[in-house]
Protein: RpsU-divergently transcribed protein
Amino acid sequence: MSGMAGDKVRQAIAFAVAGLAAGSMPAPLEHDPVRDAALRKIAAVAGQQGWSLAVLRDVAGPEADLLFPGGVVELVEAWSDLCDRDMIEAIADTDEPRLSQRVKEALLVRLPADPAMRAGARAGFGVLASPCAGGALRRTMLRTINAIWHAAQDHSSGMTYLTKRLTLGGIYGATLLYWLARGHDAAVMDAFVERRLAGVLRFGKFKAKILGGLPGSARASAASAVG
Structure:
């Protein structure tokens, strides 16, 4: 990924995290088996041939473009949403008891060491980050961050819901950029995600230790200060 595209991804992640803080989630996309089948066909070749309606017609039929009236931006956005749904389904039956490890499972399923998917994602980010994409990159980030928590079977609400998604926004953003650059090795990706999650857990324990030793009013003030 070029430096400019990487900067746009970082900016989109920042906007997505800001949207999470405001409790703003994009509307769900249309789900249809015919659309999904077309998306899988173009995703298999998008890394080499690009995301375009012409390629879509070549691989999925002469009228496949009619499935995506919003054009190529809708096409890539819908593919990202399909990947989110695949991730949720893939770990639906996990027996991992620890939430942090379920999050890790979700991240590694969503960002696999699959060269075709990584190449398709690089090409797709070029589409989503274009000036005419209308915030599509930010929307995909929001959906994916939310989907990871659903995949991890977290059912928190209120401020905990927002805090967890804000935290995951930073983890996902860093992991996504690392995956695009070096995600060809599954073991390396596993170790990277483990380090990121361990850092968050260490901070959580540190925060809990500090807050636990304070009186009520001071604890509330300190909690606000450290997030």
Q: What stands out?
A: Residues 205-227 have pLDDT under 50 and may be disordered. Residues 186-212 form the longest helix (27 residues). The chain has ten helices and no strands. The radius of gyration is 19 Å.
